[in-house]
Every structure is written in structure tokens, then in C-alpha cells.
């Protein structure tokens, strides 16, 4: 079970869990948010294009995002697996991901959904202090999650593993690892 996607609303702890899980599973952690932030920081052409979307909480256009992911997945360290965090964010991206993987006769093993109640989410985001964590942008990202990303739960119903995301970092990773073991 090494080709994995982590899904959950903003504030569900995806980033934190992705770091912990990628270490435990010995697969690279691929965060499209981190990739975009690195481009923005380095002021690359891609970063300049992506910045306004990150600042407003909108999704970066699929054409830009998919190309960046395609390049990342072509690197040699992902041959044995990966943990995607923040991608796909909509069903169109999911289709592209499926296509990229099928080109090397691969497919996803599981999609892990971190489930967290809404009041806990807002609390977590407000205390995180990232520059796109203003109340307005948080609200927009939540809306986009519901309208664009939540349909992925249906799209991936066959390989979906839902885990309670409330608790300590180690506690939640232990739940995810146990759920993955149960599936294999
Ligand atoms: P994240 O770090 O996953 O919360 O992502 C931060 C921001 O990066 C999002 O609000 C989007 O603007 C952008 N982003 C990250 N992943 C994607 C994606 N798969 N598709 C489009 N935009 C993305």
C-alpha cells in the first residue's frame, strides 16, 4: 500500500500527518501546496502565476497544477510509492492522476480521508498563522473543499479509508497505519 492520497478539509492536519506517515511508510511526501509555496518564494514564473490563487484561497488552474504534479511524479524517488497531500483537489485532477499512473501501469492503492468536525477545523486554522489563514480566505478554502474536493470521496469510494483525524499526531498516524494494514 504505497501509492497514497491524503484528503481532508483545510485544517484537518493533512500536512502534519503526511510528514509523519511518509516517514513511517518510507515514501516521499508530495504536497502541491508546499510545491506552490516554494515556487512563490523563489519567484519562478509558475510561482508568479500561482500567487494570487494561493492568496485568495482559490484553486490554481488545473493545467498549471497537473503539469507540476506530472513532473514531480516523473522523478525517480517516487517509483516505489508516494504520499500525495493536497492533490487531487477535484475530479478532473483525479482523472489526470489516474492517467499519469496508468502510463506506468500503476494505480492508487488507497485514499485516506481525515475526518474532523468543523469547529475544530476553524480553531486549528486560526492558530496556524500561515499568510493565507485569514478568516475570509479560510472560509473560501472551506467552500472550495466542499464544492470541488469532497466529490472525490465518492469518486474514490472503492479505495477510500476514512480515519478520525481528532487526536494527537501519533495517535492519528497510528489509526491510519492500522487502517492501511487492515486493507492489505
Ligand atoms: P494547501 O497547502 O494544500 O492548503 O494548499 C494551499 C493553496 O495552494 C490552496 O489554497 C490552493 O491555492 C493551492 N493548491 C494546493 N494544491 C492544489 C491543487 N491540487 N489544485 C489547485 N490548487 C492547489
Descriptive notes:
Helices cover 56% and strands 12% of the residues. With 184 residues, the chain is of the alpha/beta class. The protein has one domain (2-183): Rossmann fold (3-Layer(aba) Sandwich). The chain has a five-stranded parallel sheet. Helix 2 packs across helix 3 and helix 4 (62-73) packs parallel to helix 5. The chain is globular. The model has no long low-confidence stretch (mean pLDDT 94). The chain binds adenosine monophosphate.
Strand order of the largest sheet: 2-3-1-4-5
Low-confidence stretches: none
Overall mean pLDDT stands at 94
The CATH first-level class comes to Alpha Beta
Specify the CATH homologous superfamily.
P-loop containing nucleotide triphosphate hydrolases
> What is the helix/strand order?
EHEHHHEHEHHHEH
- Count of helical stretches: 9
**Count of distinct structural domains:** 1
Estimated share of beta-strand residues: 5-15%
SSE class: alpha/beta
Helix content: 55-70%
Quick overview of this protein structure:
The chain has 184 residues and is α/β, with parallel strands linked by helices. It has one domain (2-183): P-loop containing nucleotide triphosphate hydrolases (Rossmann fold), CATH 3.40.50.300.
What keyword list fits this structure?
184 residues, binds adenosine monophosphate, Rossmann fold, 5-stranded parallel beta sheet, alpha/beta, 56% helix
Amino acid at each position: 500500500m504505497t501509492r497514497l492520497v491524503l484528503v481532508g478539509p483545510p485544517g484537518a492536519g493533512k500536512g502534519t500527518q503526511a510528514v509523519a506517515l511518509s516517514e513511517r511508510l518510507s515514501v516521499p511526501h508530495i504536497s502541491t501546496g508546499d510545491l506552490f509555496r516554494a515556487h512563490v518564494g523563489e519567484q519562478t514564473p509558475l510561482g508568479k502565476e500561482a500567487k494570487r490563487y494561493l492568496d485568495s484561497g482559490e484553486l490554481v488552474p488545473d493545467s498549471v497544477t497537473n503539469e507540476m504534479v506530472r513532473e514531480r511524479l516523473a522523478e525517480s524517488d517516487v517509483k516505489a510509492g508516494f504520499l500525495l497531500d493536497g492533490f487531487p483537489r477535484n475530479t478532473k485532477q483525479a482523472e489526470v492522476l489516474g492517467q499519469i499512473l496508468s502510463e506506468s501501469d500503476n494505480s492508487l492503492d488507497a485514499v485516506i480521508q481525515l475526518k474532523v468536525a468543523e469547529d475544530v477545523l476553524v480553531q486549528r486554522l486560526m492558530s496556524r498563522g500561515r499568510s493565507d489563514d485569514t478568516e475570509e480566505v479560510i472560509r473560501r478554502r472551506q467552500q472550495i473543499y466542499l464544492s470541488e474536493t469532497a466529490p472525490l470521496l465518492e469518486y474514490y469510494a472503492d479505495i477510500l479509508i476514512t480515519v478520525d483525524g481528532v487526536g494527537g499526531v501519533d495517535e492519528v498516524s497510528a489509526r491510519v497505519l492500522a487502517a492501511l494494514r487492515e486493507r492489505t
